[in-house]
Amino acid sequence: GRIVWVSGPAVRADGMSDAKMYETVTVGDAKLVGEVIRLTGDVAFIQVYESTSGLKPGEPVVGTGNPLSVFLGPGIIGQIYDGIQRPLKELSKISGSYIGRGITTTPVDLTKNYHFVPTVSTGDEVSAGSILGTVKETDLIEHSIMVPPYHKVARLQIL
User: Nearest CA to 10 among 30, 31, 36?
Assistant: First the structure.
């Protein structure tokens, strides 16, 4: 789609016939993070979660195909995030004291390894919400690793 109107954090874009309600979108050349909050035909009304200053009609709007969501799991304890789960410590390394527009980074260090303790075995039947195992992040915090929602019942092939 393309931006047709900007007013504060609100953006209207046309050509968005494939968009879904609550879908995360990137807005403008700076790829600002936004969320579809209303659809009328092929026009999407978008809430942008960063400053929209400088955005102008004609700039692209691209859907991600995913709803706005946050990461939950090992690595979040001890982090400080902004409103769209960007870790402030990592952002300051990239852009200094002020968060630059359109800057993204992973919410946790994806290179860090954690010890996984399985609670199921190969061949066990699992489905949405089944706990596959646990990961201890601190002495007090243990994360359950679960089968994602909407997965059908299946036998575990490999662990």
Answer: 36
